[in-house]
TrEMBL record:
NCBIfam families attached to this UniProt entry: PRK03624.1
Upper classification of the organism: Bacteria, Pseudomonadati, Pseudomonadota, Alphaproteobacteria, Sphingomonadales
Organism: Sphingomonas naasensis
Keyword Transferase: yes
SUPFAM superfamilies, sorted: Acyl-CoA N-acyltransferases (Nat)
One Pfam family linked to the record: Acetyltransf_1
EC number assigned by the record: 2.3.1.-
Protein known as: GNAT family acetyltransferase
Presence of the UniProt keyword Membrane in the record: no
GO molecular function: acyltransferase activity, transferring groups other than amino-acyl groups
InterPro entries associated with the record: Acyl_CoA_acyltransferase, Bact_Acetyltransf, GNAT_dom
Alphabetized UniProt keyword annotations: Acyltransferase, Transferase
Length: 139
């Protein structure tokens, strides 16, 4: 098993993994999300390659202030064997190499399995509310 930055041809398999892990939402375009992360020098998608293909992924990016994690996914039949932890460690290594002082992420409040996982890794809830809206297309 190796964890490394994805390349463009990894997109379909990685997005299929995200779908299998329940990470996609109708208002997001996961193929575009994958391509955008690979296009920027300040973000990437790390994938875990095993004998049977891509077994896990994590998107990571540094906005110049904080490091952010998205699309952490471990294939359902590969869980509870340390791969999620290894992917988060790889994301931390990627962020440290770019000088990011902090790693943070958003979890849906009803995703109890992920909350249990992050708690086991020592991540703590932050006292903030996340606000946002999609940017309008000016063109
Ligand atoms: C969350 C997820 C990535 C965890 O991956 P994993 O490979 O099973 O996790 P690991 O085996 O590395 O577990 C690491 C630690 O978290 C704990 N953990 C894992 N899943 C857990 C769960 N459902 N509840 C509580 N703790 C959990 C493990 O016990 C382990 O702790 P330990 O090392 O002290 O024993 C995986 O369940 C997943 O892909 N879920 C669906 C997608 C998702 O919700 N992603 C997060 C979006 S924010």
């Amino acid at each position: 098993m190796t964890i490394e930055s994805a390349i463009p041809v990894d997109g379909p398999v990685t997005v299929a993994l995200w779908r299998a892990c329940g990470l996609t939402r109708p208002w997001n375009d996961p193929d575009a999300d994958f391509a955008l992360a690979l296009d920027s020098p300040s973000s990437t998608v790390l994938v875990a390659r095993g004998a049977s293909g891509i077994d896990g992924s994590v998107m990571v990016g540094f906005d110049g202030h904080r490091g952010w994690v998205y699309y952490l996914a471990v294939a359902p039949d590969g869980r509870r064997a340390g791969l999620g932890r290894a992917l988060m460690e790889a994301a931390e290594t990627w962020l440290r190499a770019r000088g990011a002082p902090k790693i943070q992420l958003m979890v849906r409040e009803d995703n109890h399995q992920a909350l249990g996982f992050y708690q086991a890794l020592g991540l703590e809830p932050q006292k903030v509310v996340t606000l946002g809206r999609f940017l309008k297309d000016d063109s």
